[in-house]
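1st attempt posting a full record on here, be nice pls
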Amino acid sequence: MSNFFKLTENKTTIRREIVAGMTTFVSMAYIFFLNPQILGQAGIPQQAVFLAAILVAVFGTLFMGLFANVPFALAPGIGMQAYFTYTIVFGFGFTWQQALAIVFLVGVVDIVITLTHGRRAIVKGIPEELKAAIGGGIGMFVTYIGLKNAGFINFIVDPDNIKTLNNKPFTGKETDSIHAILANGGVTPELAKFNDPAVLLALIGFIILVVLVIRKVPGAFLITLIAATIIGIPMGVTNPHIQPGTSIGSAFGSLGHVFGQAFGSNGIGALFTDWHHASLAIITIFAMGLTGLFDAIGTLIGIGNQTGIFSKKDTQAFESDNGINSKMDRALVVDTFTTAFAGIAGTSNTTTFIESATGVAAGARTGLANIVTAIGFALMIVFAPFVGVIPTAATSPLLILVGIMMMGEFKKVSWQNLEVAIPAFFTSVFMAFSYSISYGIAAGFLLFIIVKVALGKFKDISPVLLIVSLFFLINFIVLAFM
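the predicted structure (as tokens):
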């Protein structure tokens, strides 16, 4: 074991790796309860999503540890969970089966890009400050959803001003649905009055989470999730009774109805039936792939370089070598294959989790820590019957704070320079308020080109950015005449 993971070379020990692996597991365990809450709204059975996320996380985390020998755990990303439900399904009108097909295709495209080193052209072609705006914009997107789910922001719908909703007659029953936000007019946001038990529970949970995170308590997210769920029992928000038919056996039965649906007639088979759906699918695949690529590279470089997990030799090999020889190359290969498997298993895109930093801080330096983390993920299966017990009020505070933490990317943007600030601003704002990462990226890219053309700085516009922006523009023109 010591020789396989090169423990001596990486200046670590078996004990240190085990402790660090357990630390990462505790920091990430909350994601398996949050994932069903968000994707379940899209229509996927919650227990199936719960097990799918575990299978994917175990696969990706083991693969990362054994193949890349680095201590970075993988699981479905929160930003992509939100994008899956609120943009692809609710916004664009795809079924959850089609959304899973899109996730699979994102993985396939990313695999091709990674293996052919096309990622270098993409990474170098997109300005750093636009990448930062994308990361921060996803944070705004996630926080906005958390505020809505917590009930801190209500949306008052005037049925008289809304004729159709997602191309269907508006019945007025959708008032409490996220669909109402996407309606064309007649929706007014307002602050909650905090007289509802669920809203109060979300507020209590958020305060608990803030205190724990500020005090740097290990497992703050998981502790908050459990505490809020328990506090919600006497408040009448949490139903402590496990619903009939929610055993571990039924969970696997439910997974059987979801696993592989991406390849069915309702999945890929129905994804490219007309130009409208095909164009939205292609844009979504690109946007999700681009976001995942930046997210993975940002996490790997941000944590790996500071701790010495990636040496200068690794970084140089990643930037110039044509093979898959560096740790970072192998880590990105794992990241892309795991996303493809996520689409097959029945969950949203995976990502290399920033929470891995907690394990690294505890001493993790090799893939051995990942083996321990993956074992912890696998043991989570026993909690499948309890998925439906956790209320939305207990998970929404987690979304809010995760979004806040992601907005740290904004510090990389030179806001005093309008040449940079204008495209960066629209990138982030459009993501949050249009409920679409795709449209945020499109707005940022197109405004970046407009600003550079106005200043005569044509050389600053990379061919990659031009090609992608042209495709976005064509799509918007086509949609305008449909």
